[in-house]
Amino acid sequence: MDTEQHVRAIADLLAPYGVRTTEWLVSAEERNRQRVEERLASWAGGSVSPADGTVLYWVGHGTARHLAHHQTPAPITHGVTPYDIAQAVGDRQGHPGNEDSWAIVILDACFSKSFAREVHKELFTHYGAAARYLLLSTAAEGFTELGAFTEALHRALHATFPTQRFIGLSTLGRALASRLRGFVDDLTIDDDRDQLVRLTPAAATAVSAPLDQIAEIQAVIDQLPADEIQAVIDQLPADEQRHFVPKASGAELGELAWYFHGRTIQRDEILHWLNTATSGVLVVTGPAGAGKSALLGHVLLHTNTRLRDVLIRHGHFTALPPGIPCPEDPFDLTVHLAGLSLARVLYLVADAAGLTGLAQAATRGQHFADVIAQLLAALRDRQEPLTLLFDALDEAEQPLLVADQLLRPLAALSGVRLIVGTRRSTREGPDQPTSADSDLLDALRPSLSTLHGPATGRLPDVEVTRDPEAIASYLRAKLDAAKERGALVADDTLIAEAVRRLVTDQRQNGAEPQQFLYARLAAHELLNDPALLADPTLLVGRTHRELFTRALERLHRTNPHYTPLLRALGLAQGRGLPDQDDIWATAADALAPDSAPTRDSIPGLLRDAAPYLALDHESGQSVYRLAHRTFTEHFTTAPDTDQAHAAITTALARHTRHTLRRQSERDAASEPPDVSPYTCHHLAAHARLGHTAGGMTALANHLDVLDTLDLTSITTNVLHHGLNPNVLPPAIAGTVLFQHHARETAPGQERYAATTWRRWWRRLGTTYIQSTPPPTEPHAHYSGQWIPTLVSGALGRRQLHLQLTGHSGSVNAVAVFTAPDGTPRLASAGNDGTVRIWDPATGAQVGEPLTGHDDWVNAVAVFTAPDGTPHLATGGDDGTVRIWDPATGAQVGEPLTGHDGRVNAVAVFTAPDGTPHLATGGDDGTVRIWNPATGAQVGEPLTSLNVQVEVVAVFTAPDGTPHLATGGDDGTVRIWNPATGAQVGEPLTSLNVQVEVVAVFTAPDGTPRLATASLDKTVRIWNPTTGNQVGEPLTVRRGWVQAVVVFTAPDGTPRLASAGNDDTVRIWDPATGTQVGEPLTDPTGAAGAAAVFTALDGTPRLATGSHDGTVRIWNPATGNQVGELTGHDGPTGAVTAFTALDGTPRLATGGDDGTVRIWNPATGAQRGGSLASYDRWVNAVAVFSASDGTPRIASARNDGTVRIWNPATGAQVGAPLTGHSGPLRAMAVFTAPDGTPRLATGGDDGTVRIWDPATGAQRSRPLARHGFPLRAMAVFTAPDGTPRLAIAGSDAAVRIWNPATGTQDREPLAGNAGAMVVLTTPEGIPRLATGSDDGTVRIWDPATGTQVGKPLAGHRTWVEAVTAFSASDGTPRIASASNDGTVRIWNPATGTQVGEPLTGHRRWVRAVAAFAAPDGTPRLATGGDDGTVRIWNPRTRTEHVLPLEDVVLTLTAGRGLLIAGTASGHLVIDVSSVPTNIT
């Protein structure tokens, strides 16, 4: 077998990585067994220098049992055995002298996969000390083809990993094994330690450019002294190496240094700016293909001293003309933004500024707004200047976000300079007329208040315009170079005429003027068809896309597989597609499902389509993309693009699932493997782009894959691109619903734990989205982490929304304003003393909280500063009014002080001179007028008030001047002229109690009207001009009116909507003083806030915030509730409406739970009947067995019903059990004399009812009709063996009933019981344990009615729940849960507390249940107002926290199930696998 040429080829491939060949010292004919064994022993006994490695390559004939040497006869029955190879590897890699070196062992022979398996077994069994070796075979199960390994290695080094100077051996081994389908053993390899390291300069590792230009750059590098050029490249930042070394002449245009022409004026403008500007931004703009990147690269190369000098010295670059100033090495960072996310750009900026911690925070998923705020704060304190170069802003993942949120604030900092290359608009494209829109430039434009120079408001820019002479020179240089290389044979005259026609006859068929990109494309067509030089008519005046289409047709004729491969690149997200992990081939195969696999065509495409493909680097991988955005748009504008993305989604999801399963089988005991970075970061984008063709559904069908994807990517693609959340698959909506919690769970945890928690949050979110848990799904279990499974349940649905978390107390006010880039922002004020700015499109907090108030912030208002930017005014309990610039987060001036007490209201009006003024009202009874520009109080306080001012409203008087209306707790409304400080007329005094609301509207005659609401259950209409009440009061029968809003009816007349705690929303016609239609019934009984918005059909809608945390949507024309938004945990005190960027309405709500939430009210459609959230509360649950022995669950709800459920299916069994007339509080299960189960229920109606759950029938009449609510119930067995019920009521007594006879056994036990459980003494005697509101637990003997022992005292407040269990020694224990947030364990025999309290719950603990672990030891489950269930080992005091995101009202356990009754319904959790030791 002639193997020498293949050995040499392999040696040549590995030579750049420092691998040297140890030659045989004898001829092939002399390589007998002895010589082979000597050579193998020499390798095994050799040592290498630390951090070095070795490669053992065996090539020849072989079988599954032997490798043949030269003199081995056929058939091969003896030779080198697996044990010989294992011994050599084991001896070498187990030797202490080789502990710092790695080894690659390649077995290139027939049947080598079986042979390698035997080597692996032997190493694993007998050479455990051997490490850091990679074992590979080249054959699958049979014969191999000589040269297959050489081809696979070439593919890996030149196509899969070309940009990677460091290649992990495990990654390399898996790539080779995938190509060869051989065996791989990499279990002892660590990719961070064991690597192939390229030692010679390579263009592919240093630049990002079209493939043909990389080859040309490599040719230049090869001519330069290796050590000199490598030293220069090494000192460049990574992004500068990759994107700007070739862009010295335009990498994307192939315009290398020896081809660069023109643009000298623009170059000199940029250099001048670098020499003179000390801060700010310079924008380099121009149409697609104009050479912006080339120009920036050329500037960069001139300013990079070392690289410039090397290229000039060796004749590859021309120095600047004398007199042109050129700064030396000014750039701290250069970034090509194509495909980059904001998080990645943040990382690069922070890293360049030396802020390592912030850079790491950006990569760990910390919200970008937080990182930006910290970055800006750090840079403000930075003493050194910072100069940053950003190219291709228009190609960033979210260009407007990057510009507005990061680049513009950076440019506003003193000492920070930015040069940004971009198109003018995101709507601008090649072959299109220049767009009038300039949204990208607008997003970069600094506001006047942030300029460091004169307040001109101008955005400095350099326009790269068309230069026909430069384009012609460039095209001629390209063709002349090809002619010199021998790639083109043509007469110079012919070339000159073709160039002239192509450049001067450029306007044909209305095409836009050609740019450098056109010249590049035309050059490649001429080189591929030189006949076009004689008549270039087919190319003249063609668009960029037409020339690219011509190239695609030519490539398709060469190989039809090239078409789907190129289309896959056109649809790629991020930087491009990797060959690694077969991602590119998988995507391409999805686009051509009926053709053969495409992966073997990739090397040919890289060769034949080199001018149109660019090599790049992302997430540590080499990736390929089309070389220009114009090429990409050819594919993204195709009519079936959505179907293509859906197909790619399905294919990549299947591919990833296969990878996960294969790696899980191989690494079953280890943590879950990583998926491809491309899949992790970009699969959600493909799913979103293919949503209309089933892309999101395809992703949701691969839950194991969904749980591995980047959360930011999923959230961005679901919420920020106009998808209707109601049509999203529940699994994806559920993932996004609690994505903020999944992020919080992951930091600091092992990766397997984070993955497991991702699954929990996704399943919990899905449960809330669809009201029931998703089907149980198989998943990997990892040691050290236990999370139970949601089995079934029934919950109130939640709508998908963004939850903005940050406030640590109630949110009191939310205001909307518009950022300078035209996008909406929210400002929220809270009890934590902060004001926070939010981007409602992303849910991100913008900057740091605005801090300064010393106490609650009660009000926030928005006004426009003189420079046109929005400012905020806030008032708080500290008595101050503060002005803020939300763009910078800075307080403007000193606090406005004067109020003696808290400030309750802030209003904005325009003074007669056109400047904004503020009116504030407070507890000191004054209204004060302020000029926020000067910080001065205008005039004296308006002081004819004797009581607290609760509300201030502004209206326009008939003479056009602003007036104020103020309401206070004396029941009056007063009218003021702020210009004179005088009260206008007498107070409006027909009110009796505190004024809660003042709303302003315009009457049909054009005059102003006021609508006031107060605690006297009225809404009154006033004419502030006359001071008269208009008509009779609009009277609400009961309850306070807490909100009044104004809207316009379809006939154009004004309407009022009032909401309060009388369980209604009422619509009024203020002209007639009559109620319009029936009241809109709010079943929660209280609405504290309201807002008006316009539905998509143009009609008005009302949004009301309720005390149960629900936001309800109403159609006032029909009186129907049309939507219900659930999510707040507590009253919703602030509701406001705004318009999203896509023109659709949004609601922002603030609640007592400290969150601001963003909703799309159009997607909050109500499903099913109206059911108050309060009615869903499940206060009691029980487990019993059906007649067939399977478990059933009973849930008792606030709506007075009992429902029976099959936990295996999650289905409700039969109709609800009805009869109670109020909320149910207690339930117990007992066995009837015939052996069938019975339920006993009790609640607020004071009755106890007995039910047969099998039939749903109530057994006889109610057991008892108490005149007070019932609070707890328990069952025990009387001495005669019959069941008894112990019932605790609000009358502070416990009564014992015989359910068989319906009689009470004895006098009540007096003890103020609110919770109860039965326990049994060691002698088998029943006892009752009750918990009281005095914080004690008491033990009772139900037979005698006497208390046993003293009360168990320790809790500080009410005992909400008690349970009983047996300790490890079999003695009884009691666990009690209290409003003090603790759980205590008691020994009832001794009356003492056992150990310290179990602490961890952050709020009230309402429920406790006991169950047994698989080993029989006891466990406790507790739940409460903090929305968690905690599972405790009472012996070790360790806990496992299980978040449910809802108040847990009750718990019970049985049959391996834990049932939680919550404020939304109930959940059934499988706890049968709880580990012995919870960690």
TrEMBL record:
CDD domains: WD40. The keyword Repeat applies. WD repeats lie at residues 804-848, 850-894, 896-940, 964-986, 1010-1032, 1056-1078, 1102-1124, 1128-1160, 1217-1261, 1309-1350, 1352-1396, 1398-1433. InterPro entries: AAA_16 (IPR041664), P-loop_NTPase (IPR027417), Quinoprotein_ADH-like_sf (IPR011047), WD40/YVTN_repeat-like_dom_sf (IPR015943), WD40_PAC1 (IPR020472), WD40_rpt (IPR001680). Gene3D superfamilies: P-loop containing nucleotide triphosphate hydrolases, YVTN repeat-like/Quinoprotein amine dehydrogenase. Keywords: Repeat, WD repeat. It comes from the Bacteria. Residues 260-398 form the Orc1-like AAA ATPase domain. This is WD40 repeat protein. The lineage of its organism: Bacteria, Bacillati, Actinomycetota, Actinomycetes, Kitasatosporales.
